[in-house]
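Slide 14.
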Amino acid sequence: MPSSCGCISNMKNGKHLTMGIESSCDETAIAVLADGREVLSNVISSQIEVHKVYGGVVPEIASRHHLNNIPFVFEHALEEAGVTLDDIDEIGVTAGPGLAGALLMGTAFAKAVCAAADKPLVGVHHIQGHIMANLLEHPDLKPPFLALVVSGGHTHLAEVQGYNEFRILGATRDDAVGEAYDKVARVLGLGYPGGPKIDKIAKEGDPHAIEFKRVYLEQGSLDFSFSGTKTAVINYLHKEEQGGRPVNAADVAASFQEAVVEVIVNKAMMALDLTGYSGLAVAGGVASNSCLRERLQKACEKRGAKFYIPSPIFCTDNGAMIAAAAYHKAREGHFATLHLDVWPGLNLESGLGKLEQ
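Slide 15: predicted structure.
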């Protein structure tokens, strides 16, 4: 069943209303925003229980569940917001990056609704949505600022030069941080999704019990690489198993997390120093990680920089973040046609123009 953020219903009352539709992976999510920042509804239908048995998201199964769920999530989002489709000013939908089949379910639905109701369509980049999620709870946040995106498929440091203008300063060269968390959780037998499980068990372990590899790449690089750290964990577990020695899963989880978080925080602070920005906005599913949130906040406070991070409900994939991005795209006239395609590997910096086709 869909879940919501518990927002109070409102009528339109002359406000500009934007609907956001998100289906890039395994959440079917639709939200309604007023004036780009006020959340009137934020309904999410999660598939975690469906995919847990497989140890990860199965694309074909995710697509089928989106197809079944999206009409009900749509009706629930309108009902919770206390508005009708006639009240909506534009509809934004995630068109990339993500799973091709899952993206198609969302975009096909959005295009059908826009065609039937004569509403403007806005194609949204999934990562732009994650960054814009910070606007929902931080009214003082405006470009330019530095953004750190940490999720299952992405690890970026980006300059947010405008609401629709980004410059990538650093990105992962192999595994995204969330992907590394999931793989380590799998070899530890913790199950799916791995990120929350490692975060929880790590609280019981010693973060300095095992010194796993920290990868910083070339001097001055803002890129990330987590594959080596993940492999070091796997090799450690194999070595201990072959030697017949017991493994303390909490120590392994805590030590892995310490290595990963240390690199992310240091790279983010390096980016702040290099750019001169006075604020850091964090986004993406891994932004819910308690250790990362605490360490980033302390590092920003030490530098006198403002620290922005969404509540956990807006860190996970959600429709509100897509609506926020769509609102700002619409204000600058960046609309899509009903020929909008999906782009599973869409680049944030250079691919935004494809969303207006």
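Speaker note: The two ends are 34 Å apart (CA to CA).
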